[in-house]
Each structure stands twice: as C-alpha cells, then as structure tokens.
Amino acid sequence: MKVFKKIIAWAILSIILQIGGLYILDNFVFKHSSDFKSEKIELSKDKTKDIKATIPSGAKDVNVSYDGKYLTYSQDNNLYIQDTKTGTNTQVKTENNGEILYYKWLSDRDRLIMAKKVEKDGEKKIQLVTYNPKDSSETAATENNEDICTYQEGMEVRKVSESTITGVYYIDLYKGGLKSIVYRIDINGTLTKVQLQTNILGNMQIIPHEDRLIYEDKVDGRFFVTNPNKQLKFNSNKKLTLLGIDRKDVIYMGELNGDKVTTITYGKISEDTSSWKKVTLDSVVNCNDLYFSNQGEILLNDNLKGSVKNLMTGKEIEYEGKLIQIKDDFIATMDNKGKLTYKNLDKK
Predict the structure, then answer these.
(1) Are 127 and 145 in contact (CB under 8 A)?
(2) Where are the transmembrane segments (predicted)?
C-alpha cells in the first residue's frame, strides 16, 4: 500500500512539474515567438497597366507616389492628388485651414509628409503631419500635435528628410538673415533642435538605418554628419555636392563642374572615404537627372535621347514624351496632351 501511495505521489508531482514547466515556457520563454499573426501577402503587380491619369496644363511640381498609385501637382496655389487608376482629382485641404508650406511623398508608402502654417491661439505656427490620400486624414508627426515653431514672416520649410525605418524626421527651416535651423522628431514624436556646425545649410539627408544626418555647409562646401558630430572629409580638390542616400545607407556625392555633375563617388559612412567607389560620367549632367535606387543602382536620364540608362549594368530604356519621374520599378512619362504613362524598368 505504501509503495502504491508513493507511485501516486510521484506521478502527481511529475504532472505538476510538467504543467509548471509548460506554463513557464508558454508565458515567459516563448512569450513573443508564440504569438502568431496572419498577414495578407500581396503579389507584385504590374504598376504600368490601366493608368488613366492626365496631368492638367499648367500643373507644377508633378510627383508620383512610390508605387505610382497617386500623383500630386500644384495649380493656382492649390495642391491636388490624382488617383492614377481612375483619374479622379482631389484638392488637398488641411485641418484647421492650414497653408501648405512643403510636401513630399514618403519613399515607401502612399503617404504625404506636409509642413503647414496654422493659426493657433492667435499666433501662426508651423506643424508637421502625414496625410493619407485614401481617406484625407492627417496624423501629427509630433507628440500631442506639438508645433515645430512659431512662424515668422518669410520663413521657408526648405526640406524634410525622413527615415520610415527609424521613424525620424529632420526639418530644415530657413528664417532669412543667413540662418538655417534644423529640428528633429524621433519615433516617439519628441521634438528637439539640432546643433549644426554651419549657419547656411546646403543639402541634407538622413541615413535610413541610422539616426544620423549628413549635411552641407553651403558657404565653404564642407560636409558634416551627426551622432556623433564630425566632419566628413573627401580627397578631392573639386566642389562636391550631396546627391542622395539609398535605402542600403550608401551615400552618393557628386563632383561638380559649375553646377553639373562630372563624377559620382559613393560609399558608406562606416568606410574610409578614400576607399569609396567612383563612376566617371561620359558627359556632365544635371543633379536632377540622377536617381539612386533602393537596390544600389545609379540611373541617368537623357532628355535629348529620351532614355534612362542604368550606369551599373549599362542597360538603357527608351521612352517617348517628357520624363516626369524615375522610380525603383518604373519610369513615369507624359505626352503632349498630359496623358501619364508608366514603363517598367526591366532589371534582368
């Protein structure tokens, strides 16, 4: 009888230990890895088909969203969004009747980032928001919709550089009087002022996977990087300009002859700039004719030939009409009647 009771006791103890072990594994060890979520995976679609958009005569600043679903343009001091599949136009009206000072498409989603001037408590303020064209809704970039700053007459929002990977925004404000100010908004919406090593800011751009900003001193042509603050030096006796940074954190610098690019130097911030690679162009080109893809490719538009050339592979794609924009997967063009057309960039 005693032996039987011992067997029962050990069996109960074993069950208790197993249940306890499973509870610990489920609630602590595998807490995060056991929460499965199903996601709808969308297969890649041909973005070039069924485009019904027409760009109005007199439209300015035409820009296409990252996947080509929408385009924006300004006309008569108003901002419009057009659905490229339906051709439907919608005027962008901000909350509180704000005046749009700056706007651009985010690089990887159908959202606009907008800086606007609003009346608040009897004063003019600048705010930063994202705008969803699907439902015309706004989302403040700052915590509790905090103002970027008080608006002063003649103040310009020159650029917003953002990383959707780190959730950080940098806003370049020019107050006039040879003074540039840059504000930073982190992923939590906290607003801070960036300490610059220049008063007159040239181009600036964030490194996508790092909370580091590269910027240019417009007066003497020096380049700096934040976090930590240091000068970015190059072994070149020619004037340089920051052309762009791709999604792989590769930085592209252009050597200039006047305001034209002659050579492209590129590499990462973690590498010595003396080891960066170089591409010497066959002829001088405008900065706006260069595009740096998320796959680390350099694309060059030739307006005279009507072609876009991949400088890494040598492949060239011809187009008709006027080039509107180069995107990662396609180019957007417009004919003389304003009809929008997309053409695939075949990278095989």
Answers:
(1) yes
(2) 7-25
Q: How crowded is residue 339: how many other Cβ atoms within 10 Å of its Cβ?
A: 15
CATH no., domain 92-228? 2.120.10.30
Q: How far is CA 106 from CA 63, 110, 184, 190, 191, in A?
A: 11, 7, 17, 20, 20
Give the whole-angstrom CA distance, residue 97 versus residue 274. Answer: 51
* CB atoms closer than 10 angstroms to residue 171: 26
* Residue 184 near residue 141 (C-beta atoms within 8 A): no
pLDDT digits (tens, 9 = 90+) for 80-113: 999 999 999 999 998 877 899 999 999 999 999 9
pLDDT score at 176: 76
Q: From CA 329, how far away is CA 332, in angstroms rounded?
A: 10
Under a CB-based contact definition with an 8 Å cutoff, are residues 298 and 39 in contact? no
Extract the tokens encoding 16.
Answer: 């208790």
Is 98 in a helix, a strand, or coil?
coil
**Structure tokens of 46?**
């041909």
Residues of CATH 2.120.10.30 domain(s) within the chain?
Answer: 92-228
User: Phi and psi dihedrals of 25, rounded to 5?
Assistant: -65, -45
Q: Are 133 and 70 in contact (CB under 8 A)?
A: yes
Query: Whole-angstrom Cα distance, residue 11 to residue 205?
Result: 66
How far apart are the C-alpha atoms of 186 and 278, rounded to whole Å? 34
Among 299, 347, 343, 336, residue whose Cα is nearest residue 54: 336
Q: What is the pLDDT of residues 207-260, one digit of tens each?
A: 999 999 999 999 899 999 999 999 999 988 899 999 999 999 999 999 999 999
3-state secondary structure of 288: helix
